[in-house]
C-alpha cells in the first residue's frame, strides 16, 4: 500500500496495513538543508530539497508542500516581519489602514510568492507520485484577523454584518487557493484556522461554519480530500467543526485525542494528532518521542487515525526525535519494545509559587507557544497590549 493509498483509506475510515503518519514539515525543512526560514520560503528549489530530505528521513504517508499561514495575507497587502528560524509574522492590517473589503482582490496565481509555491508543488508531485501531498490554506477567521487585526473581536458584537461580509471574501480566497493547489497536484487541502480556538461554539456557528462548510464542499466537488487543522484549546468547538463536514480533523496536544476520536468517528470523520510539539518533539529525547507516539497510537486506534504533530514542526526539531517516531510507525516490533520499556519519572522542577498572586495589583500572565510566529499567540498578545493601558494607574 502506498502512502497516498493509506491516506485515502484512512480518510474514508477503511482499514490500512499500518499506522498512517504525516509529519507537518514547514520551515523544519529549511534546517534539513542548511538554509534559514526566509530563504526557504522564497525558493521553490529549497522547498523541494527540504521536503525531499524530510521524505527520506521520516518516510511519511503524506506531507505538506508549504506551511506559511501568512502567504494569503501578504498577497492581500499585509506587511510581514521575516525571521531566520520561524515563518513570518503579520505586522500590518490593510483594513485598519484605509482599505475597504471592496478594495481587496482574490489573489491570482502569478502574484507574490504563489509561483514559487506552485512550482514546488508541481516538482514534488512529479517526484513523489505515491505520496499524499497536502496543500495548506489559511482559514477564514485567521485570514480575517490578518486583514483586520484584533479589532475583529469587537466587531463580532458591534458590526456582525461587516464580519460576515469579510468572512465571505475570505471564503472566496480559500476556494481559489484550494483550486491552485489541486491543479498543481495536491491530494489533500488542509484549511488551517488556529484562531477558531479563541471563540465559543455559538460564535463559531454564526461566523465560521457558513464559509467553512462551503470551502469543504468546494474541495469535495474538485475531487480532493479535506482536513480542518486547528491548534490551541479548541475542545469546545470539535462538534461544530465536524458540522462543517471536512474529511478529517487535526488537533494538537491541548485537546485529548480520545475526546476528538469519539466525536469525529460519530460523524464519520477521520482525525489526526496529537504529538506534543514543544515539550517532546522539540525539547525531548528520541525515547520521549517514541513513548509519546505510542500513547497517541494506542489512543487513536486503527480506524480513521493519522499520527501527526499538533502543528508546524519548529525549525530546530531534532531529526532523531522524528526518526524515533518513524521507526515506531513502520515497525510493529519497535512498538512492542517501547511498550515494554520502563518510563523515566518526570524530572521537571516546579517553581516555588507561594508568593504568586499576593501583589496588590492584578497581574496578567501571557503564556504562548511562540508569539512571533503563531497567529493565535501573536493576536492574543496584541489584544492584551491594547487593553492594558485602560488599567494603568
Topology, element by element:
Elements: H1 3-11, E1 20-21, H2 28-33, H3 37-40, H4 44-58, E2 62-64, H5 71-75, E3 80-81, E4 89-90, H6 114-127, E5 132-138, H7 140-148, H8 152-158, H9 160-184, E6 188-192, H10 201-221, E7 225-229, H11 238-242, E8 248-250, H12 257-266, E9 270-275, H13 277-282, H14 286-300, E10 305-309, H15 319-330, H16 332-340, H17 375-387
Parallel strand pairs: 1-10, 2-5, 5-6, 6-7, 7-8, 8-9, 9-10
Antiparallel strand pairs: 3-4
Helix pairs in contact: 4-6, 7-9, 9-10, 14-15, 15-16
Protein described:
The structure is a single chain. This protein is α/β, with parallel strands linked by helices and 393 residues long. It has a single domain (3-350), classed as TIM Barrel (Alpha-Beta Barrel). The chain has 17 helices and 10 strands. It has helices spanning 3-11, 28-33, 37-40, 44-58, 71-75, 114-127, 140-148, 152-158, 160-184, 201-221, 238-242, 257-266, 277-282, 286-300, 319-330, 332-340, 375-387; strands at residues 20-21, 62-64, 80-81, 89-90, 132-138, 188-192, 225-229, 248-250, 270-275, 305-309. An 8-stranded parallel beta sheet has the order 1-10-9-8-7-6-5-2, sandwiched between helices. It has a two-stranded antiparallel sheet with strand order 3-4. Strand 8 (248-250), helix 12 and strand 9 form a beta-alpha-beta unit. Helix 4 runs parallel beside helix 6. The N and C termini lie far apart (66 Å).
Amino acid at each position: 500500500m502506498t502512502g497516498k493509498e493509506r491516506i485515502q483509506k484512512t480518510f474514508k475510515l477503511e482499514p490500512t496495513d499500518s499506522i498512517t503518519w504525516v509529519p507537518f514539515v514547514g520551515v523544519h525543512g529549511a534546517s534539513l538543508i542548511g538554509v534559514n526560514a526566509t530563504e526557504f520560503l522564497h525558493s521553490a528549489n529549497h522547498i523541494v530539497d527540504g521536503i525531499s530530505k524530510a521524505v527520506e528521513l521520516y518516510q511519511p504517508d503524506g506531507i505538506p508542500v508549504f506551511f506559511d499561514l501568512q502567504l494569503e495575507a501578504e498577497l492581500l497587502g499585509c506587511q510581514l516581519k521575516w525571521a531566520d528560524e520561524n515563518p513570518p509574522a503579520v505586522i500590518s492590517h490593510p483594513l485598519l489602514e484605509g482599505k475597504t473589503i471592496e478594495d481587496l482582490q482574490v489573489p491570482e496565481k502569478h502574484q507574490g510568492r504563489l509561483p514559487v509555491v506552485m512550482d514546488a508543488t508541481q516538482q514534488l508531485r512529479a517526484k513523489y507520485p505515491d505520496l499524499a501531498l497536502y496543500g495548506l490554506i489559511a482559514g477564514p477567521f485567521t485570514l480575517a484577523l490578518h486583514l483586520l487585526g484584533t479589532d475583529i473581536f469587537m466587531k463580532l458584537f458591534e458590526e456582525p454584518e461587516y464580519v460576515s461580509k469579510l468572512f465571505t471574501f475570505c471564503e472566496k480566497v480559500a476556494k481559489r487557493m484550494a483550486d491552485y493547489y489541486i491543479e498543481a497536484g495536491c491530494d489533500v487541502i488542509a484549511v488551517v484556522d488556529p484562531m477558531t480556538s479563541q471563540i465559543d461554539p455559538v460564535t463559531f456557528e454564526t461566523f465560521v461554519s457558513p464559509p467553512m462548510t462551503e470551502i469543504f464542499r468546494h474541495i469535495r466537488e474538485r475531487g480532493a480530500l479535506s482536513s480542518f487543522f486547528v491548534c490551541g484549546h479548541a475542545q469546545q468547538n470539535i462538534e461544530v467543526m465536524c458540522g462543517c463536514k471536512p474529511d478529517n480533523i487535526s488537533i494538537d496536544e491541548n485537546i485529548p485525542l480520545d475526546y476528538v476520536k469519539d466525536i469525529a468517528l460519530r460523524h464519520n470523520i477521520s482525525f489526526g494528532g496529537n504529538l506534543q510539539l514543544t515539550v517532546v518533539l522539540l525539547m525531548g529525547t528520541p525515547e520521549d518521542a517514541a513513548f509519546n507516539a505510542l500513547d497517541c497510537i494506542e489512543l487513536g486506534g486503527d480506524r480513521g487515525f493519522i499520527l501527526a504533530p499538533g502543528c508546524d514542526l519548529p525549525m530546530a526539531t531534532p531529526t532523531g526525535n522524528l526518526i524515533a517516531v518513524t521507526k515506531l510507525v513502520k515497525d510493529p516490533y519497535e512498538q512492542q519494545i517501547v511498550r515494554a520499556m520502563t518510563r523515566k519519572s518526570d524530572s521537571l522542577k516546579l517553581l516555588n509559587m507561594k508568593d504568586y498572586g499576593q501583589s496588590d495589583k492584578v497581574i496578567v500572565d501571557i503564556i504562548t507557544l511562540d508569539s512571533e510566529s503563531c497567529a493565535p499567540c501573536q493576536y492574543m498578545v496584541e489584544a492584551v497590549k491594547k487593553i492594558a493601558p485602560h488599567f494603568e494607574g
